[in-house]
Amino acid sequence: MPPDAATAWEGTGILQAHAAFNLANGxxxxxxxxxxxxxxxxxxxxxxxxELLSQGRVELIxxxxxxNISSGGILLSANDSLPAGGSIRLAVNWPFLLGGVCLLxxxxxGRIVRSDGKRxxxxxxxxxxxxxxxxxxxxxERV
Length: 143
Fold this sequence. Notes:
There is one protein chain. Helices cover about 15% and strands about 50% of the residues. A hairpin with a 2-residue loop joins β3 (about 55-70) and β4 (about 75-80). The chain has a single domain, classed as Beta Barrel (Thrombin, subunit H), CATH 2.40.10. The protein is mainly β.
């Protein structure tokens, strides 16, 4: 089973860099309200394709950007307004390569739990990593 999408960030240095950026830009530790959510959120922007599903059929295809990710769901900024309660499939372009050469995509099936204009909250029902092709330079390096 692949590693959890959100906890895959831990140990990469990205979270530490994000915290340092917040501190450098005036955010003080301990000044925010206590987090009441069940899953820790990771503020990360990644390109995402989505398919809005209706009775198992694709109703709309579009593009979005993640605003934050947790093991329980994803908050998106979408180009389209999407209906709360709808089923959705996301394909998130993952920023790490498998074995240093193979692109990855995080595939999430879920339900839209909140839609406020173009901000869309998706509750994750199922997720998995899939390969998305090999980087061209990897083939060149082997020659």
